[in-house]
Amino acid sequence: MIDIIGRWRAFEKTLRDRELAWGLHFAPEQLRYARSAEHPRGAGVDHLLPADYRAFVSEVGYPVIGFGYYDRDGISFLPPEAMARLSVDLPDPEDAWPEPADDRPTLCRHAFFAGYDLSGIEGYSFGPAAGGGEPVVWLVERGMPQEEIGTFTEWLDREISRLHAYVTAFETDEIAALREKNGGEGDPHRLLDYSLGGSYDQAPYTAQDLDLAWVESQEGSPYSYGLIDGTGAWRIPLGKRFRSVLPFRDGAAEVILNAQTTSYAGPWITIRPDGSPTGH
Question: Record's superkingdom (predicted)?
Answer without folding.
Answer: Bacteria
